[in-house]
Every structure is written in C-alpha cells, then in structure tokens.
Amino acid sequence: MESPTMKLICDLPSANSIPDNYVLPLEKRPCNQELGDDLSVTLPVIDLQETLGHGRQQIIGEIMEAGKEFGFFQVVNHGVEEDVIKGFREAATEFFRMPEEAKLKYYSTDMSKAFRVFSGSITSHTDTNDIRYWRDCLKIRCYPVDKLMHHWPSQPEMFRERLAKYAVAVKELGRRLLGLIAEGLGLANHEFFEGGLTGGDMMMNVNYYPACPDPSLTLGIRPHSDRFILTVLSQGDVSGLQASYKGRWIRVQPIHNAFVINFGFQMEIVTNGVLKSVEHRVLTNSATGRLTVATFTRPSMDCMIGPAPGVVNEGTNSPKYRTFTGDEFTEAFEATTGRREPLLDFFKIRHTQ
C-alpha cells in the first residue's frame, strides 16, 4: 500500500486563504478568463419520457441539435429512480466525512487501481511549479459491477450496494442515449455503439469541492474536454459547472434529479465532427461544498475507433479522422496533455488535392 504524502482538501484546517500551491497564475484565474457567466444562454433540457412513444423522433432531433450547437444538454424523466441517485450521493458524501486515516488508506496515484482517492489534480504550468485544483476525487471503475465490486470499500455501510445500483442504472441510461444518437446520425444499425465502442470498464469520478476561502484564485477543475464517448453527470443542486459557448462561459444550471450529458473527443471523431466535445470547467464557491458524480462510457482498449461508416462517404462528407485503437488514443491524449487542437490534429487525415 502506498504511503499518503498529502492531506485531502476536505481535511485541511480551515483558513482565511487558500494554500499557495492552489493559487492559479494570474491569467488562468476565473475572474481574468471571463467576467462571470453569460446568463443569456441556457443549455437545452430534454425530456426523455416519450422515447418509446410518438415523441421519439422529436427527442432524437432535440439531442442532435443540442449536440451540434452546445455539445452539452440536460435530461429529465430519464428512468433512473430518484432514490438510486440520492442513495449513492449520500453514500459518497459519507465517504468524504469519514476520518482522515480511513480515507487516506485509499490514496494512490496508480491509475490502474479500480478504486482510489486523489486530491488537487495537478497540472504543471512551468517546469518547476505544479498547481493543484480545488477538489478531492474518488476514481472508481464501476461497471461491470460483478467484476469490480470487490475492489470498492466496505465502509461506509451500504456504499457498495448503492454504487452498484447507481452504476447499473446509469449504464442503461447511456445505452439508451447512444441508441437514440445512432438513429439521429442516420445509422442503419441502431446498436452501432454496442460492443467495443462501449466495451471498456465504465469509469466514475466522484468529485468533492469543499467550500473555498477565495474562489477568485483557483478552479475546481481546469478548462478541458472529456476524452471518451459519453459523460453522464449528476451535479446535484449546487452550481459550479460552466461550458464554453461561442467564446463565453455559460452556467449549467442545476435541475433537481436531472443528468448533464456531454460528449468526449472520441464521440467527435466517431461522428466525423457532427457532435462536439466542448471545453468545460468548474468554479468553486465560498458558501458550501459541492459533490458531483461523473460517469464515463469508454471503449475497450483494443477497439478500433474512427468515423462511423454510415456518417462518412466518398463525396461531400469524407472522413476527417483516421482509425485508431483505444491504446493509441490514450498515448496521444497523454502526449498532448488533452489539449483539443493538438489531440484532434494527431488523428486528422491530410487530404491531398
């Protein structure tokens, strides 16, 4: 077992200012990137209740429109029971409330572990100065449940059971959404995303952002785009998530029991640029802590990933990206530190005249 070398943020002594290694360079601070939210724009909210009824085609159209315009949307009446969402969020909150020694025994920087805790996700801004971000995180491989459950902690009580129920329900929601997207793309096979493209272990980040003494100096998570096919986020009732839209940051307003849906780089490549992977970030606040649960649908590492055959053609919509494996994508993501243009450029096809 690794020896913890740091405290979790939620266990730091209360202070009137944040530690120096959480203070962002001036140009990276949220108050200097944009002056607040653009409140004139809100993300689409899509009601999934009629996906099996007469409203199915309208819902598919709304999903595709939101994916093209924003790369983000929220869903309600999604089929995941409120008790399942609330139950796991409560169990995760109890985990963060456990004594420091109980949590830190899970602290690890080993990304291969099925359950680990880390804090202050590090990003290097200079060769000698590592900046941390204001969050603690449980990183969990959460599906298939039967394969992975024994890696999860047995405390707090009911954590495993509630996580299992939540993971199964969110996996099914993701499957439904991807089926609707396959229809929206005009693919003959509505189960196109089944198999290798969603065959990797489903990953989960349970993020806890403690109340921050000075939110103007730091961020909970830096601006970034997700890497995988689909992200399903339970953000709770406390705001903090912002998505990039036409050069501005727009607030993703909390909606009770809703999920926020967004796409990763791999979805943008599979759809040949039709659906966008959009940058987003997390602000902190000084009044209260915030807990979110982000679940990522991932391909198997040996899966071949590239523009879907039904999306591209030899005429007006030729492939923009080459085909690659999940392993190759991971290597490219790490080499480019996930920066949008260098990463997509790595897989672009150079068309000759």
Automatic annotation (TrEMBL):
Its cofactor is Fe cation. The keyword Metal-binding applies. The keyword Oxidoreductase applies. Keywords: Iron, Metal-binding, Oxidoreductase. It comes from Triticum turgidum subsp. durum. GO terms for molecular function: metal ion binding; oxidoreductase activity. It holds the Pfam family DIOX_N. InterPro entries: DIOX_N (IPR026992), IPNS-like_FE2OG_OXY (IPR044861), IPNS-like_sf (IPR027443), Oxoglu/Fe-dep_dioxygenase_dom (IPR005123), Plant_2OG-oxidoreductases (IPR050295). PROSITE patterns: FE2OG_OXY (PS51471). Belongs to the iron/ascorbate-dependent oxidoreductase family. Residues 199-299 form the Fe2OG dioxygenase domain. This is Fe2OG dioxygenase domain-containing protein.
